[in-house]
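ASSEMBLY PREDICTION REQUEST
Request ID: AP-0331
Submitted by: J.K., bench scientist
Number of chains: two
Total residues: 936
Priority: normal
Notes: Please return the full assembly, not individual chains.
Input sequences:
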Amino acid sequence: MRFNFILTLVIVLLLISCKKEKTSWSSNWAAPLVSDTLDLTDQINDSTLAADSLGFLNIDLTRTVLDLGIEDFLELPDTTIEQSFNSSVGSLNVPPGFTIVNQVEEHTLDLKDVQLKKIRLTDGQIKFTVFNPLPTVCNFTVKLPGVSYNGVELEQQFSVPASVGSVPGSISSTINLSGYLIDLTGIAGSSYNILQSLLVVSSDPSGPAVTVSSAQQFKIEAKFQNVRLDYARGYFGSRVISDTAKLDLEPLKKIISGSINIPAPTIQIDIVNGVKIGARASILSLLNTNSSGQTVALTGSNLGTTIYLNEPTGSWGGLQPTTTTLEFNGTNSSIESYLENMGATHQLGYKLELNPWGNVSGGYNEIFPDSRLKVKVRAQMPLSLGADGLTLQDTFDLDLSQSVNKTHVSSGSFILNASNAFPISAGITLFLLNEDGTLLHTVVGSKILASGNSGNYDPVSGLFKKDSEIEFKLAPSMLNDVNQVKKVVVRAVFNTPDNFGNNVQNAIAAGSFLAVKLKTRFVLNAVY
Amino acid sequence: MKISCYIALCLLPVALLGQQTLPVQHDTLFEKGSFKHELILSGIADYNANALENELMKKLLYGGQITDGIKNRSFGNQRSVNRFGADVSAELEYRNYHVTPFKNERLGIVIKGGYYNYASLIYSKDLYGLAFYGNEKYLGQTASFSGTRFTGMSFQKVGFGFFDKVTKNSVSLNVYSISNFAEANIYAGQLFQSDKVDSVSLTLNGNATYASSNQYIKGLGAGIDLDFRLPVQVSETKTAIIRFEAKNLGFCSFVDKVTNYQADSTVHFSGYTLDQLQQSTSKLSLMDTLGIHKSLITKWRFLPAYFQVGKIVSDNDPSAVQTFYGIRMYGLSAYAPMVYAGLHYKLAKWADLGMSVMTGGFGRLRFGLYSNYRVGKCTLSVGSENVAGIFQKSALGESISIRLRCLF
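STATUS: Completed
Returned structure:
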């Protein structure tokens, strides 16, 4: 008993005195992170860039800032037309199969100052509902003269059940109107906005004779719903479209300082008209605002000048739009200083007037399925850039956590191996910020990413290229604070130095590239 | 302090296994009425390797900074294939001589319980290098870790059975509760990193499984323990006792599905493209990149059974010096059959000494010592199967075993 007690006591004392400390050791790891080649191939493919005969790139940028189609010019509201008939005779006993009604009516569409003569529908439906006041079955035939599909007029026949007491018998049917052509010139063929309806009602040929009174009303309702047009002819009304189109160039928002020098550029504004309508237009303003908030307005004699838009020729599949161009170049405008402001947001003020002289075409405005009225901006210039401390900055969110009491990275570095064939150099700095944006650490690249011009000529690619290895060291103090780092700001300062270090304009050759391989080496401290 | 911790670690299970080389006080001269109960508390704490030095393993087990020197010395020992294993277990066994089950006067009942922890690892030299130095050591080379096998398992046992009061043969039926389990097999594994660190290639064919349930009892099992002692006449006057012993011979099944990672792919990675980085980084899954598929599977497996066959020391032998020898095996992949032999010396009426030599198991050739102390009807045995481990930093493991047997 005494022995067991002593043994137990010894065990407890030993356990209490045994305190395990953390096991730890360090190991060195390396891994690739990024491998990619940046070039302008995609931009060449989408016609943003084009190579000239000397193998240098030219900017050929086209952006559409306004694009109007038939849906912007014309809209047919949901419309219900009704046609009804009451007998003029007080009371008439009719035999089976007797035609009680055979009547055409015209219905005017309310389209304000728009006067349509012919339209084609690409979508929509019509819902017919017919009402029979007689106590026997009646046969209704409903036609819409002028509404046809492949030359066949729209016609519906209904065998409408008998009325019950004072409640007329009724029946409904819905027809898809896609592809229907509608003549809106009325019975006389010289009017506009007119829909016609023909109602024919006869008593049931196999039913009994029935009495028709003047108090009984035969009626048809036709509801046009969700109608969309793809062709219209008529007078489209007089309209003014004035607006400001906005164009954002997101990458330029990241420029925070520095300047660029670009060769004499040209910007052309094309107004492409595919609508047969009298029209005139003017460009009221063009201004841009850079990331520093500085706004520069383009000045030039072409601003505010009214230009007249010629109507397209041809029709349907053979429609040939016309293009009217306003050019802004170094001679007639301040385009160079406008572009060197490196605006990230561009605003184009314009005014379009449709039928400014009223209905002078005899109601022969015409718009086809392919008809568009577009405003395009085109920029054409050599891709020759001079950068002097041009600074781009971008911020990335980061959320890493590690504990020194657990396995963690104690030090390390990112190593960027780059092969640069662009005539641009870059100095790269990383800023590590906490959640409040307070700067915690700055990581400066060990070297400049050298310009391709400072390298050797590669006869295979036909380019000058320069290899650089840049190390970004992550000191232990930085990694100790890594839990606090919530944002990383990457700042790159670009220059286009010549061999003497002066920044000059450099043309960029087709095929220029920047090959980057980013890898990491780090010391892992295993702890448990 | 280290020795204290070590001893505490050994004593934590509060018992030691008689299954080791400690004498089991084999005595066939059971005199009825001399005692009614026998209580055996036994345990072992043993870890062993064929290439890891103690100064490294102690840091791994007890904590501390593993310096480059420590890493380098063990790295120099590494062979192409290496083994490591650990066994920290305890068992309490009660034998009742008073009852007579089935009205058989020679039978008694045995009730036992135990707690077992096993770890077994087969690994390559390159895996050691990757783990302790990182992959920079292998730039421009291929690090191979094919054939890596790991098993880690903790379980508890409760058993009931019968024993022969004279021959001490016994059998018990046991139920098991599995509290921890993890297993990994890498059939083919290679990591190549270019000397410029612009690409890495990983070939991985293998699987890893672990019991991810939050329940303490993650699995249930059943098995048997057998202890059969065969007297063999070796001379006209001497009889040797050959003992066949098997423990934890059974299987277990996991209550919930276990988490399984499976890979059979070769992945070449030279870095993400900028387009990939511009996409949501959450879509850049490392598991997907490495071609590792995760699933939940139903699993059962055999328990890591223990077998030992050998001549044991007999209390009935009047000789001052007895030999013991035998072979031991575990159902663990890293455990090679271990052959042992030793001498037992009756120092005094109240004390014995023993020494042994053994090779195999998780490690290399090693020597053991033990001593018995008798106080009344209690016998305390303390020993080590790796004496060098107590004194030498360069030894390849440590071992201590204790056995306390009381009759009352």
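REVIEWER COMMENTS: Residues 60-71+238-382 of chain A form one domain.
SIGN-OFF: pending second reviewer
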